[in-house]
């Protein structure tokens, strides 16, 4: 069971990293994720499963990386749409996200070929590779866990490096002080667009991996993911206080694992306290409230 | 260093919390996608059958609460519990179970098209560790009924949710039926229940009759649809007899979900007794004794349809002058 929680926590931590980038780094409350996460699931599943059936060995070998890239790009496209609506029409961030999320329901149906659900059970290259890449050295479940750790660490590493580059530091400053960015001679609009794209490309990648893990891509996969991502980010902040971007990124991953563990615990033993699965959404909301309350209270005392 | 230590401590604590899991092999895990009258009836059928035939087994009832991302979590739980058999009610839960659980039997229920859902390769036999029951509704019989009720019908309308895989499958069958019988097919898709009434209004002028398959989203808004249909004098035939007893649609025909649950429970018992899933074909309800047929003569009168006595004789539930009679 611990492998299951870790695997889920790691897969959805990539989603949460996207939420972290938009809500915390850019200070841009972005709801696009409810559209970009299923977009990544749809694009990733379509590309990976189609290439996997290809008779060409070269194309077949590309199924997994191409599927992950497709998920990443599809999410990024959703982010671009939000950024464009936000900048060109000067509408509030929340509205821009809602517009994109709404539109992407139809786009995701198109990506899936007009069907709401694409099964991957018998044709799931991503999950198969993750389960078997160690060549029998590890049992399939452990192998899957190692694969997820590797992907999460890779994403963490790349993001960490990025936020230490000049452009990454500028992006970090954008959410706190836009004028400082302008004075440094950087166009804040373009920078924010790239940031919003990144903040949705990550959920897209997460969606592609989640679809493989679940065994299907579905247009309804996005429901409630923003709240789950926010709860994750805030749980991480509750556990570890830090000003360092490296630790901030890492704690998102930890928060994700804790969030999944709490949900699992509520599902498994919640009945002892009278909690049914129907109450899990309320629990998510209360977790967010509690995290905010605790950090506010802590800050006042300091 | 302090943040790192706290990180490690947090992860360790979580690990400790979960290292003490209950281990019991005499469990049947049942996961349904969402609480819904039809799915609840199936769950009850499974539970009743198991309690009667296998009283020594514990049943773990789980509900994904319409959240697709928790379906895999339930599958993980069943794996950890080492359930003897995992049952998935409705397509997403069945898919998540089938994807995660490869070393023990998975039984699906209420999956309209198990082949399209990727669960089995064909309806004639089960997969290596999977079989189950389909809730494919008798679309042809329902459309035949609609044509028998309104003889001059030329254009059939269909409203369904574009997000429900089952409904998209059924829509394909309705479309083909219309083509084969020289009828015009008019569809309108919705994304949530609040759009259903408007969807009917938008096609009302272009249809002579309305068909509704077993679509959860549409059925949440059935009273609104029935109201518009009465006003526009459109005959409505649905796949859900239970709602037709209270909501004034013209007629409804479909299989009893509780009995489908019992049939699913029987398959679980067969597998528990050691039968191989490969040898159990997908169960499709076909027995007309299990089929319910509700006919509302009050609605017929209001929309100006005269129902033949032969059709009234076939109905199992007739609503006339506000009175409901079961035969």
How would you describe this structure in keywords?
heterodimer; A: 302 residues; mainly alpha; ABC transporter involved in vitamin B12 uptake, BtuC; 13 helices; 2% strand; B: 327 residues; alpha/beta; Rossmann fold; 2 domains; 8-stranded mixed beta sheet; 5-stranded parallel beta sheet
Provide the domain count of chain B: 2
Q: Supply Rg of chain A.
A: 19 Å
Principal-axis shape of chain B: globular
From the helix content, strand content and strand pairing of chain A, which structural class follows? mainly alpha
CATH fold annotation of the largest domain in chain B: Rossmann fold
CATH superfamily descriptor of the largest domain in chain B: Response regulator
As residue ranges, the low-confidence spans of chain A are none
Number of strands of chain B: 13
**What's the arrangement of strands in the largest beta sheet of chain A?**
1-2
By DSSP, the count of extended strands of chain A is 2
The biggest beta sheet of chain A, please? 2 strands, antiparallel
Strand order across the biggest sheet of chain B?
Answer: 7-6-8-9-10-11-12-13
Task: Return the CATH topology of chain A.
Answer: ABC transporter involved in vitamin B12 uptake, BtuC
CATH architecture type of the largest domain in chain B: 3-Layer(aba) Sandwich
Distance between the termini of chain A: 39 Å
The two chains with the largest interface, and their residue counts, are: A-B, 55 and 48 residues
- From the helix content, strand content and strand pairing of chain B, which structural class follows? alpha/beta
String of helices and strands of chain B? HEHEHEHEEHEHEHEHHEHEHEHHEE
Mean pLDDT of chain A: 91
Please give the alpha-carbon distance between the first and last residues of chain B: 77 Å
